[in-house]
Amino acid sequence: MKKSNIVIVTLAVTAAVAAAFWLLLVAPAFTGNEINLTRGVTDFAQKNYELHMVVLWICVVIGILVFSAMFVSIFLHRKSRGYEAAQFTHSTKAEIVWTIIPVLILVIMAVPATRALIHMEVAPETEMTIKITGFQWRWRYEYLEDGVDFISSLQADSNAARRLASGVDPETVDNYLLDVDKRVVIPVDTKIKFLITADDVIHAWWVPALGWKRDAVPGFINEAWTEVKEPGVYRGQCAELCGKDHGFMPIVVEAVSKEDYAAWVQSQQDQLAVEKREAERLWSLQELMDHGQEVYATQCATCHQADGEGLAPAFPALAGSTVTTGPIEAHIKVVLDGVNGTAMPAWGGMLSETDIAAALTYTRNAFGNETGDLVQPRTIVRIKNG
Amino acid sequence: MTTEHTHDTHDHAGAHASDHHDDHDHKPTGFMNRWLFTTNHKDIGTLYLVFSLIMFLIGGSMAMVIRAELFMPGLQLVEPDFFNQMTTMHALIMVFGAVMPAWVGFANWMIPLMVGAPDMALPRMNNWSFWILPFAFTMLLSTLFMDSGGPAAGWTLYPPLSLQTGQSFAFVVFAVHMMGVSSIMGSINVIATILNMRAPGMTLLRMPLFVWTWLITAFLLIAVMPVLAGAVTMLLTDHFFGTSFFNAAGGGDPVMFQHIFWFFGHPEVYIMILPAFGVVSEILPTFSRKPLFGYAAMVYATASIAFLSFIVWAHHMFSVGMPLSGELFFMYATMLIAVPTGVKVFNWVSTMWKGSMTFETPMLFAIGFVVLFTIGGLSGLMLAIASVDLQYHDTYFVVAHFHYVLVPGAVFALMAGTYYWLPKWTGNMYSEKWGKIHFWLSAISVNILFFPQHYLGLAGMPRRIPDYSTQFADFNMLSSIGGFIFGASQLIFVGVIIHCVYRSKVKATSRVWEGAKGLEWTVPSPAPYHTFDVPPPINAQTVAHADEYDH
Fold it and tell me: Which residue from A154, A281, B155, B385 has the least number of CB within 10 angstroms?
């Protein structure tokens, strides 16, 4: 074959390989789907995005070179074209070159990679702290300085639509599986430290726009930090397999201006005061049943199921159970303290007295239990205060 | 040691053993004698290969359940807990039931034939190491029918989640123990055979690369299977006997399990891929009609990869909260793996360069391997970057990465090897037409299956979820379609094998492929029941590749 023809083949093959990479890496974006890492809204996320793109392009260039060489050979050096095989077996020079060049490329990549990692792992002085606790299958957020404390669960619409053969088209649900009942509200331009842990199994807290995920390990506290630059709503979800509803514990962070944040904290504290007052008054059975149904649906139904039949063998039925129809004191104790060695958490520290009393009343009267028992919020207050 | 060999050797004393076997090869008669009590490396190799093919189909059908549920958003087919059982079992079956036993099957069939040995060094143990497996996997699969369901905590069995498995957990742990025992015995056998049974003149650096990669794999297995056994035993006692190895409330540490698991787990992934490197290094020279480029470098690169596999485990755990220095160490060590892996890829391309190539099915699968494994290797390099891994980790990007190295990687190499040696095993040629159809369907569909998963992961879809947000719908549907085509294509593979064994009229010659070199091609096809009772001569005609002979 003439030398000029070989050059033409080489160029054509390289162009074809490059086109193939373009088809794989760029063209799918035209479908309107997101196909790449988010740039994010923190310095770290943006550093990560840039690093990701640098390494990706290095890989693409290496890929184009290697595959082009290979396909040029496949095209030119085939028996059907009458090509006679050469018989060389090695070339020390070439082998040294393709050992050293990759080492150099790696060193070049290692520099920004190290810098980004140090940026993440060496936390600056932070201005506020949020403790995040993962448990099956929701997140609890405690604002250590501001005294805000709540549980965030999958939003009710999504929760109903995601049941097996629910008949609800997920396309009709806003932010299907990525919406929660209570958002984590944070101020922008504030360095926030997260203390991340878990109650039962390992979870991982991940919001892509912040640029990282961190495992929530029971018995240990991991640290991470962030500083969000732009107000907005950022969605994520649990990233570590944590049991049957692993796919259903989303995270929604709402970054707001510092003023809005202060107002939000105030409203949370006011609400807490209202709840405290409410817990002291006497509730009617109907009030407790109505509120209890809501609490049950968001907190209890995941395991014990909406119809109270549970899911054998891990999650016992509440309909006709010896706990829900037995002595009230034992039932209250189970709910407040949880059951060791099972998935039943200690709700005493996580839900308000009113919520607990309502849920107790509801479960003692729904599913055909009909004990007629009524648990007043103030009873729970009294028991919790010993 | 083995009576059947002694009288054979007597028959053929001084003769060219390999030429005289067709007439009276002394196969035991009766199913029990032939298969249950067999000590013959070829029969045991066949057993391993058939077993792993069955496991491949079972594990594959679980993958079909997974892809069917993920076909569109919302739950249509299975409850989330059963979905988790499927992902867990799919991985356990594919890793321990399909890929690993398949490689042991290749080792059994080919290593004695490639080094000029009459059989494996320890034939009775060989029988035992196979026959443990059907029991181990029957037990593992039986957990799916138990009240508490099968394991659903992922094949990594991370506590505390895995400790929430019900009574079936004990069966899972015991099954893993049995697989480990089988693997360790298999590896001892491979090492003993390679180090003691080579024909005179078959020096270490004249061994075919497949033998080299298996030798190194066997050492990896012996080093890490006991570690896995220890880890699952600690899970067992935590679950049933009240210990607290992994329970913080009792002074333990759940993350310690991950360290122990991945100290096993990372070498484990090389256990699945190193023999693939070996097979591809046999096939590319044959169909390029040109010696393997850089034989010695290939051996050293394999050894380097094996060594590095022991010091990179925590790159699976960048998000658990490690000290900065630890993360840096594991990032740098992981990046280093790119160097010997790169050497291998460059050497394969150089082997093809200026060859005289033809493209029979084994060659097609080998080329597919080089291209697609390289893609998996490059995404692996991206994953090594610890800070960005805080984004990639536990997303579909990781799923895409390891399926690229395992499916069009390890599994394609297994298929390449099967097509390559099937004529030697059966004495018949397989259908080249259907082999090629199998290749093209597999190669195209595997990319439709796994490439979109890169996008899903980068766009934020976590792995191991049964249902997903609607923004991920398009590429999940595409991926599922690819998955169904890929799954169906494998039935062609089964058909081609059955046809080749029972129906094919085209007899294979002893060399089978024009460019084939190596001792296995000096014996007739099918390979007689006993081969190399007398050590074969080792020279430039019989050795596959050794630099000194290649001029």
Answer: A281
Same domain? A96 vs A188: no
CATH number at residue A247: 2.60.40.420
Sort residue B526 into left (φ over 0), alpha (ψ -120 to 50) or beta. Answer: beta
Label residue B31 by pLDDT band (50, 70, 90). Answer: confident
Which of B331, B345, B460 lies closest to A66 in CB terms? B345
| Per-residue pLDDT, A385 | 80
Q: Residues A151, A63: one domain?
A: no
Could you give the percent of chain A with pLDDT greater than 90?
A: 56
**pLDDT(B11) > 50:** no
Q: Are A145 and A256 part of one and the same domain?
A: yes
CA distance A332 to B156: 37
Res. B546 pLDDT band, cuts 50 70 90:
low
Residues on chain B touching A161 (C-beta within 8 angstroms): 74
- pTM score, two decimals? 0.91
User: Does this complex have an ipTM over 0.95?
Assistant: no
Which residue type sits at A357? A
Clarify whether B158 is annotated catalytic.
no
B270 is catalytic: yes
Asked if A158 reaches chain B (Cβ–Cβ under 8 Å), the answer is no
pLDDT for B24: 54
Q: Does A122 touch chain B (CB under 8 A)?
A: yes
Give the CATH number for residue A342: 1.10.760.10
Average of per-residue pLDDT values in chain A: 91
Helix (H, G, I), strand (E, B), or coil: what is residue B444?
Answer: helix
Q: How far is B154 from chain A (nearest CA, A)?
A: 8
pLDDT at B217 over 90: yes
- Name the active-site residue from B463, B464, B499, B511: B463
The span from the first CA to the last CA of chain B, in angstroms, equals: 41
On whether both A104 and A13 belong to a single domain, the answer is: yes
Q: Is A299 on the interface with B (CB under 8 A)?
A: no
Contact of A211 with chain B, judged by CB distance below 8 Å, is answered with yes
Please report the sign of the dihedral spanned by the C-alpha atoms of residue A231, residue A247, residue A339, residue A218: negative
Tell me phi and psi for residue A184, to 5 degrees.
Answer: -85, 110
B 78-97 → A contacts, CB under 8 A: 78-81, 84
What is the rounded radius of gyration, in angstroms, for the C-alpha atoms of chain B?
23
Per residue in B146-181, pLDDT (tens digit) is 988 999 999 999 999 999 998 899 999 999 999 999
Across the range A302-331, mean pLDDT stands at 85
Q: Please check whether residue B550 touches A, CB under 8 A.
A: yes
Of A62, A77, A247, the CB nearest to B357: A77
- Partnered with residue A151 across adjacent β-strands are A140
Closest chain A C-alpha to B533 CA, distance in angstroms: 32
Cα–Cα distances in angstroms (integers) from residue B229 to residues A235, B89, B238, B264, B265, in the given order:
40, 18, 14, 9, 12
User: Are both A106 and A144 inside the same structural domain?
Assistant: no
| Closest Cβ–Cβ partner in A113, A165, A213 for B319 | A213
Yes or no, beta carbons of A106 and B339 under 8 Å apart: yes
Give the CATH number, domain containing residue A73: 1.10.287.90
Regarding whether A211 and A318 lie in a shared domain, the answer is: no
What are the pLDDT digits (tens) for B486-519? 999 999 999 999 999 999 999 999 999 999 999 9
pLDDT band at residue B20, thresholds of 50, 70 and 90? very low
Q: How many domains does chain A have?
A: 3
Given CB atoms, is A50 within the 8 Å cutoff of chain B?
Answer: no
Q: Using an 8 Å Cβ cutoff, are B354 and A152 in contact?
A: no
Residue A15 lies in domain: 3-121
Nearest CB among B324, B347, B359 relative to A122 is that of B324
Tell whether A355 and A320 lie within a shared domain.
yes
Cα(B476)–Cα(A69) distance, integer angstroms? 33
